[in-house]
Design goal:
- With 539 residues, the chain is an alpha+beta fold.
- It has three domains: 10-166, Beta-Lactamase; 187-293, Beta-Lactamase (2-Layer Sandwich), CATH 3.30.450.20; 301-537, Histidine kinase-like ATPase, C-terminal domain (Heat Shock Protein 90, 2-Layer Sandwich), CATH 3.30.565.
- Helix content is 43%, strand content 23%.
- The strands form four sheets. The chain has a six-stranded antiparallel β-sheet with strand order 3-2-1-6-5-4.
- The longest helix has 57 residues, at 295-351.
- The chain is elongated, with a radius of gyration of 46 Å.
Length: 539
Amino acid sequence: MTAAKKHPHEEKRIESLRMLNILDTLPEKDFDDIVLIASQICETPIALISLVDSERQWFKAKIGLEASETSRDVAFCSHAILQDDLFIIPDATTDERFSNNPFVKRGPNMRFYAGAPLISPDGLPIGTVCVIDSKPRTLSLEQHKALSALSNQVSRLLQLKSELIKSDAIQKRLEIKKTALDNISEGTILYNDRGMILDFNPAALEMFGLTPEVLLEKRNLPPHWKFFSEDGSPLTPDQRPSIACLKTGSAKLNAVIGIEFDPNLTKWFKVNSIPLFLDGATTPSHVVSSFNDITEIRKLEDDRRRLQVHLSESAKLSTLGEMSSGIAHEINNPLAIIHSWNQHLMRKLTKQGLDPVTDLKHFESIDKTCERIAKIIRSLRAYSHNAEKDPMSPVIFSQIIDETLGLCQERFRQRGIEIKVQCNPGIILNCRSAQISQVLISLLTNSYDAIISLQEKWIEIDVTESNDNIVIKFTDSGAGINPDIVKKMMTPFFTTKEPGHGTGLGLSISRDIIISNGGEIQYDPNSPHTSFLLTFKKQ
């Protein structure tokens, strides 16, 4: 007995067989009918549909044989799949390849065998339709053609069943996807290449308060609806994410739009529109858009923003209250000077008249003192101004520092705290100057409280610029901040000060202000003193 060689493309052949998902399946009438026809046409007691696996041959259908599979080594079909045409053994006892085969020596006492190869969809032999007899014989030309035809039909039937299995699997996946789509919280709408609505999920109907009949196959939603962009400006139909996605072929992600359904109801949505390119199209064949209702989130964000402004104003007033004695002293001193010179000049005018030469100097002194007061008033006005909605504008940074120090320098001078400033007058920062002044005041106030009891008391503001950044290094004579406090000091309402001294909002608000002005604030742990770095990108 000679075992058949492996097929030249054995691995691919086995893979093709198993891709059909036919091995070890239950009997099926379509296949049983074919072996019955083969048996009757070829006038043999045995007919089989045999599939040759890696180590066995398995019978999908059989007639005249009890076994459901045999070893591949003894299988006549292992030889048949190596042929392009019908493989016929007229008398196995006279063929040295099969004369000692157990199926020849014992039951079913095989003598005659004829097998027509079964071909997989990718052109590889996977088994046979075969007929077997216990006596030597051959096939007529008509029987030969009929067996080959039956083999072709089985090949097509296997391919069809495989495609049906794949189709069922695809259908199952589609059902799962459809079920998942119908149950997600985001509204989803599918548009065709003309912007017509083809499909949607229940969440979309609920979000828009529409019926399927109103939404299906419409290009535009109800005409009385008003659409807005994120900044509140009107949104034309062509500017809506789905239509813009169709026109450009590019995804529109995280677009925020508002819809006024009626004068009493406006909702805000975050929209993602994705183009689909089916059948190799170069322009979108469809667009799928998902809608997430962010109305409540936007309302909370607006409330948060209003609270932030309120807290910011409260922090400013609290800081201003702490500096009030210094500001009062800063104003009272020049007022006392003005009052004194005014009394002197009035007495002189009454007694002897004014001297144009000597008294002009007194008037000049009064004028300078008034300008000093005016500068303080301007600083107060700038500091108290709510700059949240101010546009960003280029400002000479040294002027921001001068105006800020005009509010508090006297307070620091009275307590022996030296303020040193290093800033090139040519450094220009694109910012909201009133907000940056608020940050500097907050840092100055924190430093004041931290170093007031130290023997060495100083604050240094060092402003430098590079090709990309403007860096403000704010340092005081303190010995640094405990690492555990550093982790929490930017948290709102966190403070290490005594009750009644500070709100715990200064650094938290300062961080938000700096971020809104395009910068960042960091504590410098490598400095031997307490130091913060404020970094802004140059415009």
